Amino acid sequence: MKRVRTSYGYDTYRGRSLLQTILTILIVVLLVVLLLAVCAFLLLQKYMVYTDDGQAHLELPFLQQREEPQNPEPSQEQNIVVVTPEPVQTPEPTLQASAEELEPVSPVSLFRAALTDGTAQRLVTGAGGNAALFNMKANDGSLGYVSALPRAISAGSSAADPSLNGKIQALTAGELYTIARVSCFKDNLAPKADGALAIKTNSGYNWRDEEEIRWMNPTAAEARQYVIGVCVELAQLGFDEIVLDNAGWPATGNLSYIKVGESYDPATLSEGVEQFYQELQAALEGTDVTLAVAVNAAALTGSETASGQTAALLGQYADRVYVLGAETAGACDRELADQGLTGGRVLYVDNTVADLSTTGKLVAAQIP
């Protein structure tokens, strides 16, 4: 019988098996995953941070606070309004009263509106105090007066009412003892406008505390000079006392995110604080303003060192000390007395008032 070829001269094509196809796909997928892993490893190297004990962790920018460019170019649509303050009469230089002769005060923290609406004396008397405390440089960086400082104007910190300073001087010229609170380095506006002033994170962003507020770097000369300029203007406005709050490094928040280096060395934090005090003391020389410092009780006992504040610094540079966070008056008497801080030079802030910016109540206990 004749053989019949059913394939018309060609061998039957069997094709690629299903198993081979699956293996090929798996190999391609694995190669892609491997390539992506290598690329991710190389990209994340610069975000790897090592702790003091040698452990490594990633500090990714999108897990921290998003930050504006450090030196943003001004938009063409942005209008900067410059308010020229009324001329401030500089007080005649007088001899400052000896710190030991300071009269005890019981401040009442008031809203800024009381600077001009005529209610300050009544509110102070009604709260049982004898001094009015105004938040003249708030934690957010805003000022309670019209400043002539270029940095305050460019950052949008200055008040806008050109008649405000004259009204403040009318109040400070009266019999009521007036105190200006200044949040020194805790300032949300100035570091936003100029990133060179800011405390930096390991990734180069502006560091923020637990309240999402930026801080200026005490070792930055421009930051110190800005705060000093504010204090000089407040002295010229006639305030009897300036109380410096946040006058050092942050002591709360995620401090491990702060970039350690020449500008932030945990072993030398007090040096920048002391330099600030020295420069401020020189700038206020010849005025009769009392210089006070608010400090956490923990810093006086040595249990908290992150701020750079010490009892020795306060004894040397502060006329008066406001002790924050003490459970009872007298908790730090020994440490303060060792530095000559006694009597009217010490006030213990009511522990229910977290900071001196709280308004509407007596904020400090009078120490006889």
Write up what this structure looks like.
There is one protein chain. The strands form 2 sheets. A 9-stranded mixed beta sheet has the order 10-3-4-5-6-7-8-9-11. Strands 1-2 form a two-stranded antiparallel ribbon. It starts with 17 loop residues before the first helix and ends with a strand. It is elongated and about 100 Å long. It is built from 10 helices and 11 strands. The protein is α/β, with parallel strands linked by helices and 368 residues long. Helix 6 runs parallel beside helix 7.
- State the total count of DSSP E strands: 11
Helical proportion? Answer: 25-40%
Please state the average pLDDT score: 81
- Give the strand order, joined by hyphens, for the main sheet: 10-3-4-5-6-7-8-9-11
**Rg over alpha carbons:** 31 Å
Biggest sheet descriptor: 9 strands, mixed
The quaternary state of the protein chains shown equals single chain
In N-to-C order, the SSE pattern is HEEEHEHHEHHEHEHHEHEEE
Note poorly predicted spans: 49-54, 64-85, 90-99
Instruction: Please give the alpha-carbon distance between the first and last residues.
Output: 132 Å
Number of helical regions: 10
The structural class is: alpha/beta
Please report which band the strand proportion falls in: under 5%, 5-15%, 15-25%, 25-35%, 35-45% or over 45%.
Answer: 5-15%
Tell me, briefly, the overall form.
elongated
